[in-house]
Amino acid sequence: MDTLKQTLNQFVGEGLAEVSGIVQCNANVITSSRPEFGDYQANGVMSIAKKIGDNPRQLASAVVENLSSRTNKLIDKLEVAGPGFINIHLADSALMNRADHIQQNIRQLIPLATVPEKIVVDYSSPNLAKEMHVGHLRGTIIGDCLARVLERQGHHIIRQNHVGDWGTQFGMLISYMKEISSDAADLPRQLADLESFYRAAKERFDADPAFADRARSSVVKLQSGDAEYLAVWQQFIDESLKHCQAVYNKLNVTLSRKDLKAESFYNDELEGVVKKLQAASLLSVSDGARCVFLPEFAGKDGDPLPVIIQKSDGGYLYATTDLAAVQYRSFELNAERSLYVVDARQSLHFQQVFAVAQAAGFASDKIKLEHVAYGTMMGTDGRPFKTRSGDTIKLVDLLDEAVRRAQELVADKNPHLDVESCTAIAQKVGIAAVKYADLSKNRTSDYIFDWASMLSFEGNTAPYLMYAYARIRSILRRQEVVLNDYKITSLSEQAERSLLLKILQLSEIVDMVAKDCYPNLLCNYLYELAGLFMRFYESCPILKANTELRNSRLSLSALTAETLQQGLDLLGIQTLEQM
Question: Which of 114, 223, 291, 362 has the highest CB neighbour number within 10 Å of its CB?
């Protein structure tokens, strides 16, 4: 089932094409900003009028006349407005029929994509030398939201966790592990706090030249495939991944060990990357390093910017591994779209990697490479969020603190709640609050992390939306409503109509998030939906209405709850039946 916007765009576009004589016309249908201007507005007339040299208002009038001669049960009225806009008023009966169809098959609330694609979503990607910190939050939850949205539309999603598990720092960690592993049984305790373990190894590296030499030697042995060193490295990697998985589980993120495609996975392909670039005559030597210089990338002084492929000492860089990953995703996975959910500070890196990949044939003709960039989480001082001592905050500690604060809040609001229930509610509310506070912001912007606002039960927050859902479910439980037992049979009040129209627009918002990768669009939609339900609840009596009207309003309430639940699930937020 097409969305309302898709249906209208096609219908108005056909009329515009017939009147103008242009075969393909984009009606450019958008949601109306004000109800008095209709439900939707077609803005495409003016660009077509300019093409054919016609008066846009006269062309709009001709299109309305053409469309009025056709049968379309979705449209109640068309009006020409301003210089050539077409205001579209939808028929109540069509909205109720569409709602009835969805209630009989709730899967249709978010229809499947007409042409499903194979899409790689590369996200989270922590460095396994340390524990995940707050800087990994945004990439992890934005990527997970996009994977959920695209998967819900029926696309074949391949999650890829491109973790850092290779390189110089691992030589240092291996050497330190070998020193303390004489007591193998004690190693798990030593690795329980990876951050402390890393600091101890780094202090040893900086203070002892002999240890530093052994560490550098360990890197060579690791990268040459020495079995003993690989075994020690694997032990550290396994423990690091356990730490990551614990965070993913706490965050309700869908990444698992099977989604792992670490830097080391591409190690055997790196020499081939160099050879392919050499064969394409793209490699140059600069200060002993092998680089690619593309004319479209230059510094402020006009000098070309290099993409370093291999250092003078023979070591490879991120660009080399990323080119191998593009090749793998293009020709092994046969993906049509590859999303890289990575910090905005890496924008130039990905622009260069994508350009080199296309120039050298690492990218297939059909794959679309997209950097889904995001800004930084800031503290109230306007600087990257850290502890008072200036240390980077572990992500698991941040989440534990969110749950602790949520538990205090829940206990304060509902002092008679038993401890077990309070703990269960706080677990979901705390995690949801952190995730939603991030996802509700435009991903390209930096944002201020603020406990008070994110845990508020007022405004555009997770607790507000979770409470709205729980409140509706409480109403429905008292009536034992089953979603498809009733129909929406009345839209006599504007609050009823506005609420239903908003529900039917969920699929349009999901389409936008899938296309442009901005989860905040979905957050804004859910917040507006919850607000419309509150207005409906206040102005339209449910339990005191006559039987038919009560059943219609209960059905509308049930559909609202389902829409909230599905929308929050796409954000990776779990709902509560009571709060």
Answer: 362
